[in-house]
Amino acid sequence: MKKFIAELVGTATLVLIGCGTAVLAGAEVGQAGIAAAFGLAIVAMAYGIGPISGCHINPAVSLGIYVSGRIDAAEMVRHWIAQFIGASIGAAILYLIASGRANYNLATDGLGQNGWGAGYLGEYSLAAAFTFEVVATFIFVVVILGATQKTAPAAMAGLAIGLTLWGIHLLGIQVTGVSVNPARSFGPALFTGMGQLWLFILAPAIGAVLAGLAFRAGLMERRDGDRP
């Protein structure tokens, strides 16, 4: 139950702070500020709930960790349930706050939802969006698995992971708004529409599986006897 609550709270916090910065303060802080909000939210949660649940707060991360062999299927599913509930709560809180602004309009202002194509940020194509989400999720999960392996300095893991997410957002906000996290996409989509949600479930899953397989095969994990 502690892990469930930690993952729920952590995912809700990520959605509220990350998507919330885009919706409530995007004009003031710009895309660099939005990227920082997502990265710093991960850093904060990594140290806040990491000792309890590992701070996955992302179904793709849980999937990658499962494929790598570090958790079993039952724990992965429990994490997924907590993450999707948490993202929904975070998006609901954000909508409640945003709708208190006199000129807020859900249809035009949104909730920091992900997307692609005509009318969405840089208007990138489906192929570009899919490619970005697969590759970015692969990189993100590789950093997580690498930074949390037994031979890595544990105290630095949260910082490395948060900085990676920050950098990914700096690169990709114009492409998809950056998901790399099906739960983060699901929460806002509950309110804004789910027509494009499939990409932000499928592409991160592919990237996460590829990263997990690389570590399971020992290609990217330092093991006893390996030379630095």
Outline the structure in words:
The chain has one domain (2-216): Glycerol uptake facilitator protein, CATH 1.20.1080.10. The protein is 72% helix and 0% strand. It contains 8 helices and no strands. It has helices spanning 2-53, 59-68, 73-98, 106-109, 126-147, 157-176, 182-192, 197-216.
How would you summarize what this structure contains?
Pfam families: MIP (PF00230). The protein is mainly alpha-helical.
Strand content: under 5%
Low-confidence stretches: none
- Oligomer description: single chain
DSSP E strands, number: 0
The CATH class:
Mainly Alpha
Tally of domains: 1
The CATH topology annotation reads as Glycerol uptake facilitator protein
Number of helices: 8
What does the main sheet amount to?
none
Quick check: average pLDDT? 95
Shape: globular
Kindly provide the radius of gyration, computed on alpha-carbon positions and rounded to a whole number of angstroms.
17 Å
Helical content band: over 70%
Q: Give, in order, the helices and strands.
A: HHHHHHHH
Main location: membrane
Membrane topology: Multi-pass membrane protein
Organism: Algimonas arctica
Pfam family, one: MIP
